[in-house]
Amino acid sequence: MMVDLSSFSEEKFDPKKWINGAVQQRHPQDPVEKHLVDLEMKLQMASEEIAASLEEQSSAALLRVPRASRDVLRLRDDAVALRSSVANILLFLKKAEGSSAESIATLAKVDTVKRRMEAAYETLQDAAGLTQLSSTVEDVFTSGDLPRAAETLANMRHCLTAVGEVAEFANIRKQLEVLEDRLDSMVQPRLTDALNNRKVNVAQEMRGILIRIGRFKSLESYYTKVHLKNIKKIWEDFDLKQQSNKLANEKNEVEKVSSNFDSQSNLMIISYSRWLPSFYDELLLYLEQEWKWCLLAFPEDYKTLVPKLLIETMSTIGSSFVSHVNLATGDVVPETKALDKGILDILSGSMPQGVKIQTKHLEDLIELHNITGSFARNIQHLFSDSDIHVLLDTLKAVYLPYETFKQKYGQMERAVLSGGIAGLDLRGVSTRIVGVQGVELSETVRRIEESIPQVILLLEAAMERCISFTGGSEADEIILALDDVTLQYISTLQENLKSLRAVCGVDVTVDTVGAKKEAASHVRKVDFTSNEEEWSFVQGALQILTVAHCLTSRTSVFEASLRSTLSRLSTNLSLSVYGSSLDQNQSHVDNNYGSGEVSTVGKALLDVAALRLVDAPEKARKLFNLLEQSKDPRFHALPLASQRVAAFAEAVNELVYDVLILKVRQHLNDLSRLAIWSSVEEPSAYRLPSFSAYPQSYVTNVGEYLLTLPQQLEPLAEGISNTDTNAEEPQFATDITEWMFKVAEGATALYIEQLRGIQKITDHGAQQLSVDIEYLSNVLSALSMPIPQVLATFHTCFSTPTDQLKDLVKSDSGNQLDLPTANLVCKMRGVRLD
């Protein structure tokens, strides 16, 4: 049996547990006593072995201690000796450092003198060489060796730079400038011939000469001048064709007059929008050919030469391009085509009165811009190897002819939208034709309601045109235009609303002949108007309410759409802010986007809006402030229009209420001065009721009107459901209930006001009035409206006999009665409370 002694060294060793474990490992047939005896013997032997080993190792360790002590003493002596040697070396180095510093300073002075002497020597050589070159340069020019002449002039330039501003060489400096101009003029004909005849070797040689004398601008100038002539011929082809067609047509007209039959049909005048794509195709083909040829002839410069050619081309034809675009936009409308004018002419005010910009004008302008946009994309692809700044300048030149139109785009849209608003049929209702005013009222409201979606479509189309034409760079201007035009529209609606108030009889107005009409209750009397016409006015007023709801919801949805559009613009144009910094700090782009996205920033720069914003930081700041504000849910894209819409809705609510309460007001007019209140009961031989058992006609008419009103309000729910598909049925009921309660409360308030105006009332009048009040209270209860305490107090006090009224008021103490009202009734009935 092997004994495992490793567990004895453990910190938490348990002897009992170890013994029990050892006993469990015995063979089942072995006795426990025998197993324990063997285990004890093995443990004793193991302990003896450990003790012997420990004694042997201790003796060996004691023998090694003196030897280790001697080694430590020797190492300490060696360390002391080493420290002394190092100190001596440091002392020696300090002495050497002092002497070497003086030597190095001396050597530095000697080196400075040497370099100055070398520079003086080189300067003297350059001066001598400059004098020699100046004397022999004429012979070089006479020889006709242009490369040698270029090399000579380059050496002279180098020598002049070396000698600096020395008075003795001022004449040579002037001579060098003259010689460089002379060599430049000698290169021009050869370079021009090489460019015209595609001589690659000669072109390369002439380019090298110009580069050697620092005249790369001359290379650009000569290259552009040669090819600009060819491109201008392509551009002038349009005018030539137009003139030839006009001459041919005039000739045909003369022949027709001199003969009895048509000799030849007229030639069609080519439209600019149809010709422009062909011009761009020919120009693109020409540039592609030049790109390929310059790749061979000028491999170092082709990425700048060909774009420079296009930039100069657009600069040369720019004014003509603008003029053609202006005339082309005018040709799409017969009115301006006959005048041979366009958008810019209309904006300048040089057109006859009444001629305005139309949607077709802008649509044709956008079509031309889209054609140019397709050409710009092809140019971007062709010049993709060019530097981003060169490509940027090139594309700006391509779009440059449209810049005049874009700067005035806000004015254009204002004119178009104002014309669109003016073209709507929004004439007010006539107040002169009696008997059909209800029909005209309904027709006027119908026209207003139909105009709302038309106006929203006009506004949406204007925003789409702005995005299409300017890429959103004029979003701030178009927003102002939309706001102003919406104000113009709402102002027209408010004017119509005034005429509607006059027709409905709720305002004082003056008719066309100047006769003054009475206000409110005096404009239309109940006796002179049929019941059907009365309800036609009510229905017309409810239609106006539907119009206000439609206008509010449509403008709200349109504003939300504008915010969404501005948010998309903010995302699309945000890269242009970083892209514009490419000119100054490329690392800024890398830090914000990563090196893998720089190309994306470069492409963003080439957006039609970003092309304008890069060179207009102030405009960009203003635009991005607007786009940042649009992210706030509280932002109003049309701030003034939103306020005016709310004011219009409030005015409509006032009109509707005045119309709905008008009949009540007419029936209750002069109620306080009715003769029945002061009437005395007539004596009779028979026992008769002292008052009428039925309410009077004025209150029954009011009651019948209030009870019929819910049926008249039902079309309100239908109108709202037609204008708001998201509205729910309970909302309809809420609107009807609110208006019903509002009218009922108004009628009650008018009635109470009339009751307060009664100066004196007899018992007979009080009894009749209590019946009238009870009838109106029953009507209010039928409408589920609570009875006001003031009205209940009037009923209680008027129905109480005169001799009991004082006790009633004294005993109530304000619990059931409204005391001021009760005191007023006591005064009317002549009852003294004191």
TrEMBL record:
Q: Which GO terms describe its cellular component?
A: Golgi membrane; Golgi transport complex
Name of protein: Conserved oligomeric Golgi complex subunit 7
One GO biological process term: Golgi organization
Q: How does it sit in the membrane?
A: Peripheral membrane protein
User: What keywords sit in the KW lines?
Assistant: Golgi apparatus, Membrane, Protein transport, Transport
Where is this gene product found? Golgi apparatus membrane
PANTHER family associated with the record = CONSERVED OLIGOMERIC GOLGI COMPLEX COMPONENT 7, CONSERVED OLIGOMERIC GOLGI COMPLEX SUBUNIT 7
The record lists the organism as Handroanthus impetiginosus
The record's similarity note reads: Belongs to the COG7 family.
The record's listing under InterPro entries reads: COG7
